[in-house]
Amino acid sequence: MATKSRLHIPHPSARPGDTPDFSYLNLSPAGAVEKPPVDARTRDIEHLSVDLVRVLDDDHQAKGPWNPGIDAAALQIALRWMLLTRVFDERMWQTQRQGRISFYLQSLGEEAISVAQGMALRPGDMCFPSYRNQGLFLYRGTKLVDMMCQCLSNTRDMCKGRQMPIMYHNRRANIFSISGNLGTQYPHAVGWAMAAAIKGEDHVATSWLGDGATAEADFHYALTFAAVYQAPVILNVVNNQWAISTFQGFAGGERRPFAARGVGLGIPGIRVDGNDLLAVYAVTLWAAERARRGGGPTLIEQVTYRGGAHSTSDDPSKYRPKDEWAAFPLGDPIERLKQHLIAEGRWSDEKHKNLEKELRDEVLAAWKEAQRSGTMTEGPFLDPSTMFDDVFAETPAHLEAQRRQMLEVEG
Amino acid sequence: MAQMNMIEAIRSGLDVTMERHSNVVVLGEDVGYFGGVFRCTDGLQRKYGEHRVIDAPIAEGGIIGTAIGMGVNGLRPVAEIQFADYIYPGFDQVVSELARLRYRTCGDYFSPVTIRTPCGGGIRGGQTHSQSPEGIFTHVTGITTVMPSNPYDAKGLLISAIESDDPVVFFEPKRIYNGPFDGDPDKPAVPWTTHPKGEVPEGYYTVPLGSAEVVEAGQDLTIITYGTLVHVAQAAARLVGVDAEIVDVRTLVPLDVTTLADSVRKTGRCLIAHEATRFSGFGAELAATIQEECFYHLEAPIERVAGWDTPYPHAFEWQYFPGQKRIAAGIRKAMEAG
Asked: What's the CATH number where A342 sits?
């Protein structure tokens, strides 16, 4: 210990030009962490917030008590959704680079979380997503073309041109609206869950935010309210190690894992390998069952890695080593599930290539269809006078006056 | 009809609405077992249970944030923020989420939250228990902003607010909770039993949102005001001996421009009064609107009387508060000009 006070500025383990170093990550071997009953007392399972629940080992075998025993056919479907998410992201990224949409944000390397949790939840469970949950939108039935039209702000845009790209919502699929303000959805999820309990329903609410957003007050409000009222909610911290250019240490992750944030409030925290679809599925199912039985909230830290840039607006080679993802000890979630299915004799490289081709065709076809409803440069275009709708349930006089004024001036 | 003060009227409004709609829930600091620091929710938890009248942690951002989630799940939450001065931790949830949810989802999602909060000074509350931040909220589009000035309106407007599908911020001027304060702190307090608007129906009724009221007809000038200052303005007009028309704005957004402008066109003179600080205050919006609507009817510049642009000082409360003397001076100026 130093002999005088000091200001500690956190530094990541590697910057551009350095050799990637993930020695700071506490990793448990696959299958090593015990699985408690869903009604376990929080104080008896505190270790889950520092251990790492893993099912798939380095030889691609499913191991241990958390192995959910999903059959291979269902895993092939899961693989398909993950791969579709990635192919969709690739296409939309290129589209932004070509200047056809204003912004994009991909979920490269984090696809297992949305798909596994989509599988583990019931349709009546409500999702309050962050902006890197596109796989959840797809899994719950949002059409590719509808998501593309949103990004294009065209005549088929679900948001009628009011939101920048990727701020989707899907009422029928029970997915809330994405906010550009970080972490605001967390207390919404808790309130939704409280209402479910007030109404005597057994639906569960789920929300996601990143390691960086845990510093927001809304994270702490949500945890407090969830703990106080034992709300049936699953709160996920997707720790992808990076918040644009600041590593997870700047959100306070250097000394204690994010899963341990709940422990002080008596909320079980579970740290899970976020790139292991089987582990994420099993942990989510455990938390959902606990919530449905009146056991209250669970905080899940999904340990993963942001495989790409934060968004189309930043260049990660300016702040982290280019080869850092390749060195990430928990690998690539798609590759891991693929290798597991191959090891089980239920998949092959050839089938994978064919699937990828099929999905690329599907995404391309959707892109062509989306553009028929308009692009940034070619019509049909949205009617700008609709910008005055939905500010209030009924448009008040001063907004109607502004609509007329806008039409007079702008034509 | 019954005699009610503003606290009883608000409580009655909550009671009637909770009885009528099983999805109305109340949450806030001290609102449950204790019944609220101003007693506005007294007895409601005993009547409706702990699942509908919910004591909350001391976290305004959490109260408003969870209320939004409840609203999305079919409830009609009435969140109490104990003092308007405490609302700022929840401001982001109001501005970025509550106000824009309907817009950003094109009506697929909305959350009909009502936020009740006591505002205003004159109770020795200093700068953290006296603010009137209504102008901060009127600047946020998507929010209905209300401030009643008497028990009858408070109950009727509150029921309308709770039943509205739009979010409402409902300011309760706490100085007039117990009586129609005329701005003179040295006079004995006057109870609501002396005022016609202290007569309140016990059952269900509404006062529509978005409508101002001419509380006193007159010919010489129009005083546009709301909240506590409605009563102060009436006293000030009597002090000057002028035949003033007093218009109570009641709902700040959406604003009833017609009632305001009709009055000014008739009198040709206008004074705007509010307790909140003057610079960029809601009075500036009112003045601009009247200028646009009534310019060729005006015989004098529009006069504004407001709180000084300082924090609300504890020891100098009555020098800060825009009382009868300041409003009277404003009236004389408006009458002498032109």
From this structure: 3.40.50.970
Taking the Cβ of residue A126 and every Cβ of chain B, the question of whether any pair is shorter than 8 Å is answered with yes
A388 and A319 share a domain? Answer: no
Is residue A289 domain-shared with residue A408, that is, in the same domain? no
Query: Of the listed A271, A310, A320, A340, which one is catalytic?
Result: A310
Are A320 and A388 contained in the same domain?
no
> Which residues, numbered 176 to 205 in chain B, qualify as contacts with chain A under a Cβ-Cβ cut-off of 8 Å?
none
Examine the domain organization and report whether A392 and A260 are in the same domain: no
User: Which of these, B62, B44, B61, lies nearest to B53 by C-alpha position?
Assistant: B44
Which structural domain range is residue A119 located in?
42-380
| Chain A residues near residue B107 by CB distance under 8 angstroms | 390
Contact check, Cβ <8 Å, A225/B59:
yes
Q: Smallest CA–CA separation between A261 and chain B, in Å?
A: 17
* Reported pTM: 0.98
Based on the fold, state whether residues A303 and A393 are members of the same structural domain: no
Q: In B, which residues are within 8 Å of A389 by CB distance? A: 106
pLDDT digits (tens, 9 = 90+) for B93-136: 999 999 999 999 999 999 999 999 999 999 999 999 999 999 99
Q: What is the C-alpha separation between B167 and B309, in angstroms, rounded?
A: 29
CA A286 to CA A74: how far, in whole Å?
19
Q: Which of B21, B51, B129, B274 is catalytic?
A: B129
Tally of structural domains, chain A = 2
What chain B holds in terms of domains, given with CATH numbers, is 2-184 (3.40.50.970), 213-336 (3.40.50.920)
Cβ–Cβ below 8 Å for B93 and A194: no
Q: Which residues of B touch A171 (CB under 8 A)?
A: 105, 108-109
Residue A410: pLDDT band with limits 50, 70, 90: confident
| A279 closest CA partner among A262, A258, A302 | A302
A189 chain-B contacts, CB cut-off 8 A: 69
In a domain, A26, yes or no: no
Neighbours of A173 (CB within 10 A): 18
Residue A163 sits in the same domain as residue A80: yes
Is the confidence metric ipTM above 0.90 for this complex?
yes
